Amino acid sequence: MKIATVLRNDDYTREVELRLKDKLKEAGSMYTFVTGPDEHPDMVLSIGGDGTLLEAVHQYGMQPTYVGIHTGHLGFYADWRPDELDDFVTMLLEQKEPFIAEYPTVQCQITTGDGQVYHKWALNELVVRNASLSTLVACVNINGDELETFRGDGLIVSSPSGSTAYNKAVDGAIVHPSIEAIQLSEIASINNQAYRTINSSLVLPKHHTVELIVMNPEIMIGLDREHGVWKNVRSIICRVGQDKVKFARYKKLTFWSRVRNSFITGSR
């Protein structure tokens, strides 16, 4: 099996990677470490935090399975702590078959006023804001039908696993990753006598689309860790992605256990 690693940029994380490689080398295992997507690893180890995991997924795509080792605060995606490396290596050496958890993604089509089309995706979420940090104005269509004209700070379209990230911070629902859905949530919408929005998160099933018809000449678009200013965006269409990100679970830790440990107890 070929393994690649993606690291958070700090000395402690690099030390954890070296310890892991040494343990596998000492065991004389059949595992080899590779660098770069061109070498088509079977497994990618993300050593760091959730941001590191998002970086790994966008670097290596949907083909490999992913395992997270957190080296800082508790990560929602990570299963292992540095002091559990021996247990992790033992499971690898015993070639125990992990449970493969598949997490849906958000698939996005961004169309500009001059007709250019860009296809993007996110494991956590798409975030849209006005580039000047003033009011974002966008018509929101569900399956081609108008829902509302949104005015406010921004909009989030999240995946089920991303429902525990920015979406949760704006009081969106937490959605189990076995549910193939996307969620549209508002960021500080304007609601008064002149302007009205639904002012509630919407969970949309796999066969639904949400389209944002953007009125601002420049907007900020965030896709997981990728952020940039886009000019002359006409529309953004989001749906549940066709492909899923695969996580190799070598120990039992349910989604709701992750939610509890990440947000309530702060422990594994």
UniProtKB/TrEMBL annotation:
Keywords: ATP-binding, Cytoplasm, Kinase, NAD, NADP, Nucleotide-binding, Transferase
Subcellular localization: Cytoplasm
GO cellular component, one term: cytoplasm
Top enzyme category: transferase
Catalytic activity, EC: 2.7.1.23
Coiled-coil residue spans: none
InterPro entries listed in its UniProt record: ATP-NAD_kinase_N, ATP-NAD_kinase_PpnK-typ_C, NAD/diacylglycerol_kinase_sf, NADK
Reported cofactor(s): a divalent metal cation
Gene Ontology molecular function terms on file: ATP binding; metal ion binding; NAD binding; NAD+ kinase activity
Positions of the catalytic residues: D50
Pfam families tied to this protein: NAD_kinase, NAD_kinase_C
Reaction(s) this enzyme catalyzes, per UniProt: NAD(+) + ATP = ADP + NADP(+) + H(+)
Highest rank taxon of the organism: Bacteria
Chain residues that bind NAD(+): D50, G51, N124, E125, R151, D153, A188
GO biological process: NAD+ metabolic process; NADP+ biosynthetic process
Similarity field: Belongs to the NAD kinase family.
UniProt cross-references to NCBIfam families, sorted A to Z: PRK04885.1
Function: Involved in the regulation of the intracellular balance of NAD and NADP, and is a key enzyme in the biosynthesis of NADP. Catalyzes specifically the phosphorylation on 2'-hydroxyl of the adenosine moiety of NAD to yield NADP.
HAMAP family noted in UniProt: NAD_kinase
Protein name in the entry: NAD kinase
Organism: Brevibacillus panacihumi
